[in-house]
Amino acid sequence: MRQLLLVLSSILTLSSLNPSAMTIAGTTPDLSEMRLVQKLNCNNPQTQAAINECTKLSYQNTDKKLNQVYQQLLSILERPRKQKLIAAQLAWIKFRDTNCEFERSRYEGGSIASTIYFGCLENTTKQRTQQLQESLKTDP
């Protein structure tokens, strides 16, 4: 009888809750969200996962710089040269991504594979940014 009362009490309590507020017991939390709670110290990453994440963030910052320079260059070019730059950039992106996938493949399945991949993306992107900056200096 006591167990029946506990079950009925639980059902009544659950039914009075907002359905969006209820969770299923035994579910595991999303680990990607949990990592965000911890402050990432990219000046001194302590785990391979932290190194991977810091390398990714560093690449993303480098990619933002590339896009800024690319947009600046596009804005000053005449239409025929602008079209050539767009085609060149698309080909370059395909090269960069494929080349970095090749670099990563050496470490496939290893925890360092992400660091190798994002490091390659970052280095290649820095080189391209320098090339585009040179074009900015020489184009009217």
TrEMBL record:
<keyword id="KW-0732">Signal</keyword>
<dbReference type="Pfam" id="PF07007">
    <property type="entry name" value="LprI"/>
</dbReference>
<protein>
    <recommendedName>
        <fullName>Lysozyme inhibitor LprI-like N-terminal domain-containing protein</fullName>
    </recommendedName>
</protein>
<feature type="domain" description="Lysozyme inhibitor LprI-like N-terminal">
    <location>
        <begin position="42"/>
        <end position="132"/>
    </location>
</feature>
<dbReference type="InterPro" id="IPR009739">
    <property type="entry name" value="LprI-like_N"/>
</dbReference>
<feature type="signal peptide">
    <location>
        <begin position="1"/>
        <end position="21"/>
    </location>
</feature>
